[in-house]
């Protein structure tokens, strides 16, 4: 496999299915598990707006105007959502006003609902896909045995 190739993830199908019927999808997992790469794989050639809260200018814009930050007509990808938890209430308002599926694709590297601002923000509006590091089956291109799964799906 060439260095520039993206290795397929089994979780991609779960994320695509979640975007088809859920307003907000969160890919949650440890740092360096491949969340941002999975987002690129799932988004493919779709027209999406991407925001990365690791970038100071995106983080500052999110803090200054959370409602304006999430005001997008199509799919909005927000990487590292845990950096600005205030966005969760703005996302709640946005998806309550426009309940179409596939509005937001979020990534986070900490337990999102352990955050102070998150507990009641998105129940019933968000599906979480837990992303684990590559399974042996993903690395070998074969089925997984009884080892740790590459992802699990949780409804909020």
TrEMBL record:
Residues 147-156 have a biased composition (Polar residues). It comes from Paractinoplanes rishiriensis. Coiled coil: none annotated. It holds the Pfam family AAA_14. This is AAA domain-containing protein. Residues 22-139 form the AAA domain. Signal peptide: none annotated. Residues 135-156 are annotated as: Disordered.
């Amino acid at each position: 496999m060439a260095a520039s190739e993206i290795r397929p993830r089994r979780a991609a199908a779960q994320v695509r299915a979640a975007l088809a019927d859920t307003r907000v999808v969160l890919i949650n997992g440890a740092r360096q598990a491949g969340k941002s790469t999975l987002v690129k794989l799932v988004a493919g050639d779709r027209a999406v707006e991407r925001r990365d809260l690791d970038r100071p200018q995106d983080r500052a814009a999110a803090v200054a105007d959370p409602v304006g930050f999430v005001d997008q007509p199509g799919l909005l990808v927000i990487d590292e959502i845990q950096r600005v938890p205030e966005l969760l209430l703005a996302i709640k308002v946005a998806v309550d006003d426009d309940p179409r599926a596939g509005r937001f694709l979020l990534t986070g590297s900490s337990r999102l609902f352990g955050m102070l601002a998150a507990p009641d923000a998105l129940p019933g509006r968000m599906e979480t896909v837990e992303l684990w590091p590559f399974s042996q089956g993903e690395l070998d291109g074969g089925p997984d045995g009884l080892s740790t799964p590459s992802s699990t799906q949780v409804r909020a």
